[in-house]
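Tokenised fold entry reproduced for everyone:
>
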Amino acid sequence: MKRIFGSLILLILFSLSDLSAQDLPGNPAFTFGEELSFEVSYGWLNLADAKMQISKRAQQQNEKPHYKIDVFGKTKGAATIFGKVNDNWGTYLDVQTNLPTVSYRHIEEGKYRKHEFVHFDQKNKKATMKLFDKENKNIKETKDFDLPGQVQDLVSGFYYLRSQDLRDLEQGEMIEIRGFFDKEIYNIKLIYEGTETLDTNLGKKETYIFSPQLPKNKLFRGEFPVKVWVTKDQNKIPVKIKANLFIGSLNLDITSAKGLKNN
């Protein structure tokens, strides 16, 4: 359970990275204080709760204002039998450039622990990773990386997507995206599949549909196992994610949305 949940969140966030080659400063789709909540289910079983949350006010990094964005995932109920998950992925996203300055992960899955910070120098194409011990007190590894250009991290990529104009995308269009995660540069192809109207907890929503092309793995079924539905409005929020596993499918559905910039 814990590996499935962690991998699902990874794919959701990372696959929705830089959709466009153009830089569009400013964020018409989101603002400080936004909070999106989701329920993760497998068939009839509710496995976990997830939340995407933007700080209520700007946070300073390198004397520049940033959005501090956190994603939380926590198992609940009977799902804890398979191992408790209490994860936090986060980023400091530059308000002006829509690029991450710092990303971090605090992973608690069963007895496994990982605390990691990555500092990005987007101008000089460098990244520095600092890995802490299980108690998140002492640095046990520091490593520098060369970047091929500007990159997104695990969390920032989705919010960068929301700052883009999606109206000119054509069905079937394939876009290659680039990001940095877990000491590696990833280039993933993202397919735009068109639009669909969904009934959600927020009401009936017109949505864009995206699917990342993934390499073969032991967890997910098919070349395009994950689909993400993003509202076709000014907010561009995810309302549903479906991941086809080798047995059954995992679903993530929105339960509430607070602090949206556009009503």
